Amino acid sequence: DTAVSQTPKYLVTQMGNDKSIKCEQNLGHDTMYWYKQDSKKFLKIMFSYNNKELIINETVPNRFSPKSPDKAHLNLHINSLELGDSAVYFCASSPPRWRDSTDTQYFGPGTRLTVL
Amino acid sequence: QKEVEQNSGPLSVPEGAIASLNCTYSDRGSQSFFWYRQYSGKSPELIMFIYSNGDKEDGRFTAQLNKASQYVSLLIRDSQPSDSATYLCAVNMGGQNFVFGPGTRLSVLP
């Protein structure tokens, strides 16, 4: 299936641990994103990568580090997890402008992170 | 601070009625505007996008954009219970920097 996929779907961990969330898209898109959706459902952009290069880095603690090994993957590593990191994290991708000028984003299913 | 604002709702409409969802944005230079629908526990999915002033219709959905007033809206005609969801307004404020509003929860009552 063509899609944006994320693993794991659920992640429960203790404060202070380090964890990673993986994202892959097989849509041939150039741009990938990480969003955080908190308990109030506010969806906020964290990072954006275009062709493996970081283009947007919003005000996010440096405990969060994105890594893009190739343009189909964008992983999110979180160090020293805190209670406030509990949220749903969505990966998304969008096609290159030459192919689709609409800027439409396609979202993955989300990863629900719970920090105890 | 670049912002997108929406009424959080819930907005309740009877089945078959028109639901009207509104959104305002702060960055006058924004060029592209989107409406996403998000069911509880699911990921956002695109409903409509609009770039030019005026109306854009797609089936039961109509997006309206007024750049002078920095206002974008979504009308849902003949609302169905399956339209009950949270509707997110998103604005590309340049350089693929998408800013989402807090969402409006719509409830369509049978």
The averaged pLDDT of chain A comes out at 90
Major sheet characteristics of chain A: 7 strands, mixed
| Series of H and E elements of chain A | EEEEEEEEEEE
Structural class of chain B: mainly beta
Describe the structure in your own words.
The complex is a heterodimer of chains A (116) and B (110). Chain A is mainly beta. In chain A, 0% of the residues lie in helices and 54% in strands. Chain A has no helices and eleven strands. In chain A, the strands form two sheets. In chain A, strands 2, 4, 5, 6, 9, 10 and 11 form a seven-stranded mixed β-sheet that branches. A four-stranded antiparallel β-sheet of chain A has the order 1-3-8-7, with no helix packed on it. The radius of gyration of chain A is 14 Å and the shape is globular. In chain B, strands 2, 4, 5, 9, 10 and 11 form a six-stranded mixed β-sheet that branches. Chain B has a five-stranded antiparallel β-sheet with strand order 1-3-8-7-6, with no helix packed on it. Helices cover 0% and strands 55% of the residues of chain B. The mean pLDDT of chain B is 93. Chain B is mainly β and 110 residues long. Chain B contains no helices and eleven strands.
